[in-house]
Amino acid sequence: MKRRGITAVLLAVLLVGSLPAGVLAGEGGSWAQASNGGIIQPYWTYLQKYSNDFYIEPNGKALVEVIASARNCDEIRIEADLQQYAGGNWTSVKKWSKTSAGTSGGLSETWYVMSGYSYRMASSVKVYRSGVLVEQASYVSPTRLY
């Protein structure tokens, strides 16, 4: 009897392990399998695009850029936070936010930073439909040393 139970468990594990990730998440699930080698990435219901760019020019001018678009919404709110690493902690240097009516929005800002520190950009996008938050996402850039 024990042998039959162990065999059933092993068979179940093998069957579940052989299913594609998209089947496990279900249609419209919160995760989807990407077509780029099976990397698992978030699947959004409303967001269609959420791109982020952050770099620091040789003169210390940091560029923060966030672009987002969504479907079936009436407002997009983008927030960006330029952060500095000092004393073992990330602290905010400058924050920006922009709310756009419609299905797309963008934020592009610059700020001069001090040399000798590491910096990063953290952003978030919130999608609203009829005044109700229906979806949100966030991003943290790689660290840049200036």
Shape designation: globular
Q: What is the level 1 CATH name of the largest domain? A: Mainly Beta
Mean pLDDT comes to: 83
**Biggest sheet overview:** 5 strands, antiparallel
Strand fraction equals: over 45%
Question: Which second-level CATH architecture of the largest domain applies?
Answer: Sandwich
CATH topology of the largest domain: Immunoglobulin-like
CA gyration radius, whole angstroms: 21 Å
User: Structural class, from secondary structure content?
Assistant: mainly beta
Let me know the CATH homologous superfamily of the largest domain. Answer: Immunoglobulins
Share of helix, binned: 10-25%
Task: Please provide a written account of the structure.
The strands form three sheets. Strands 5, 6, 8, 9 and 10 form a five-stranded antiparallel sheet that branches. The chain starts with a helix and ends with a strand. Residues 19-34 have low confidence and may be disordered. It has 146 residues and is mainly beta. The protein is built from two helices and ten strands. The chain folds into two domains: 2-40; 45-145, Sandwich (Immunoglobulin-like).
